[in-house]
Amino acid sequence: MTTQRSSARPRHPRDVLDEAIENDSITQLTEALDLAKSNPIRNTPYDKFLASALSSCVQDGRIDLVGHLLEQESASMTFLSPPIVWTKFSIPLLELLIAHGWDINRSAESGARTRRQRIIDLACGDETFVRWLVDHGAQVDGGEDEYEVYPEPAPLLETCAVRGSVSTFLFLQARGARLGKRTLHRAAEEAAAARADPSITYDSASVESDPNGAEAALVKRRQGRSEMLRFLVENLKLDINAMDTEVQRPFHWGTPLCYVATKPNGEAVGKWLLEKGADPSIKNTEGADAEYVAKDHDCDKIVALLKDWKTAHGLDGGK
User: Fold this and answer.
1) CB half-sphere exposure, 24, CA atoms < 13 A
2) Which CATH number is 203's domain given?
3) 267-275 and 300-312 helices cross at what angle (nearest 10)?
4) N or C end of the chain: which has fewer CB within 10 A?
5) InterPro entries under this entry (predicted)?
6) Cα(284)–Cα(287) distance, rounded to whole angstroms?
7) Number of domains, the chain
8) How far is CA 292 from CA 3, 254, 300, in A?
9) Could you list the residue range(s) of the whole structural domain that residue 293 is in?
């Protein structure tokens, strides 16, 4: 009679790596690396596994594990694109990466999602990060004005108009960041998406009572987008009727008012733009005015607003 011995199947290196990241454990990380050496993953050389492990640790913000991989294993930073670094961004993490040669001005790959963005493009919503990045060599110029579908990336002030504060905008502008053709357009679009109302002052009571709550976040967003829109129109004096492009491009709607017309609850922003001088009769490169754009996006409230405005001001199409 023979006795069969069952040998335990070696654990997969990736499973151990996931546990190491979850537990922030260098011991488990070392185990995962040893397994990857002794039982290589099919079609994954050890150097590639190392680079992938580094990417995963960076994405989870595990600074100790990142330091071990860079200092003890000399892991390649090949996969560390700006969006990966931004996932759980912190200044200590970026300091560590830069100390080992990561380029603070590295661009992401081309494409609809990444659009060759740099870390400073992604950080525009946080003034503390923006100031730190600029102080440590992040470039603020660049950005495309001429492109086929969308800029890769957009000029930095255009991005800041969507994500950032007026204070951040002024800081970047003073250091040479450029406006884009759609700076006001994108700001108006984002304000409309947030259901902001630039004509009012937002009550800060909900923010003070529960600064980390959902209601506070909503108020902050609407307040920030309203402040940016007022600044661009009233202080910077950007052309409220400027066209976004001279040639037909996807997702280019025309004037800032046309951008607002794509958002179903943007009537407060639309009304504010009209009162500031927006002309609803201007047609885009496809021959559509703001009312047509609103109809095309099933934005009934905007359609009603524009019809009423045209009727009250004797403009064609108000009937």
Assistant:
1) 8
2) 1.25.40.20
3) 20
4) N
5) Ankyrin_rpt-contain_sf, Cul2-RING_E3_ligase_SR
6) 5
7) 3
8) 81, 11, 11
9) 181-319
